[in-house]
Amino acid sequence: MFTRLLISWLSSFVLLGAFANAHAQNPAHSTQRVIEEIISVRTPKEAYQQGVLSKLEAATAPTKLLVVVSGHPGVTRPRMNEAGKITTRQNGNFLVRSRHFLISNQVVTLLLDCRSDFESSCSDVYQASLERAQDIALLVQEVKNKIPSIKQTWAVSTSWGVITTAGLLKHDPSSYTGIIHTAGTYNKATDLGLAFGPFKTPQFIYHHKFDPCPMTYHRDAAAIAEKWGVSLVTVDGGTGFRGDACQAFTQHGFTGREEKVAVSINRLVETGVLERINID
User: Fold this and answer.
1) Nearest partner of 193 among 102, 129, 254, 109, judged by Cα
2) How far apart are CA 151 and CA 41, in angstroms?
3) Strands (E) located in the chain
4) Is 25 part of a structural domain of the chain?
């Protein structure tokens, strides 16, 4: 059944939805509409790699692609629901729920799924592998074929997804203009033999000052930033915290600060310049 669904997704679904207030800090974008479609490619393993491509309807020639990597379990399985909207298994994840704040006239996003032969969890070993980087590259090329105006590719991850972005640094750094990690499990990545330097590809870290998750304390992000000269943005404040410490609606998921963080990431991708190192 799943394979048949994936094959059907090769004919892209398109979603037009209201984009009210998604860029409240940029009034020019506040009433624009978003187009979303599911992109899928076949990999050498005879499995599928898919993702959700999101862009502003008015973005006729965007130049930046931002690859978006969710946290654990990393299996998003996007689909069109009965209301005609694209939904995923990880709708609550920080980057999944905030992805529309990441786009603009110049920036489109590609929210990754894990490859189709990983059903319940995107394994650590696979995320860290050359194979993962190659599967992502196939999907990125498909997007570039659809949008030939794209000149730069960036990647952003959150939490456990840092294993994937660290893997991209190891296996395919020249393909990326910049790599952004948010609320990352840096010690887990290093345990898998990955590193955060030295690399020529610019890196940036966003981390909440009071992240309560034992695997993602702010001090761990600060240590990585200091060791390798990585730019660190410290986030403070927020509202509506609930759930376990490492889940999506605590400071770990930037709850109440989603828009500010995502808009800052968008500006970084647009300009290549980090405008501020504190968000509150």
Assistant:
1) 129
2) 21
3) 15-17, 34-42, 48-56, 64-69, 79-80, 86-87, 107-112, 152-158, 178-182, 203-208, 231-235, 278-279
4) yes
Report how far residue 69's alpha carbon sits from residue 181's, in angstroms, rounded to the nearest whole number. 9
- Structure confidence at residue 31 as a pLDDT band (50, 70, 90): low
Q: What's the CATH code of the domain at 227?
A: 3.40.50.1820
Q: Which residue has 């654990």 as its token pair?
A: 72
Q: Which two tokens stand for residue 211?
A: 């992240």
Residue 43: domain span: 2-273
Q: Whose structure tokens read 């479609």?
A: 37
The helix (run of H) or strand (run of E) holding residue 233 is strand 231-235
Confidence (pTM): 0.89
pLDDT tens track for 102-134: 999 999 999 999 999 999 999 999 999 999 999
- Whether 42 is covered by a domain: the verdict is yes
* 58 located within any domain: yes
User: What value does the CA radius of gyration of the chain take, rounded to a whole number of Å?
Assistant: 17
Residue 30, pLDDT score: 52
Q: Tell the burial category of 60 from Cβ atoms under 10 Å away from its Cβ (0-12, 13-18, 19+).
A: exposed
What the block records as the tokens of 66 is 């931002």
Q: What angle do CA 246, 254, 23 make, to 5 degrees?
A: 150
Distance CA 25, CA 38 (A): 28
Determine the residue type at 154: W
What is residue 213's three-state secondary structure? Answer: coil
Measured distance CA(274)–CA(204) in Å, rounded: 9
Burial label for 202, CB within 10 Å (0-12, 13-18, 19+), is middle
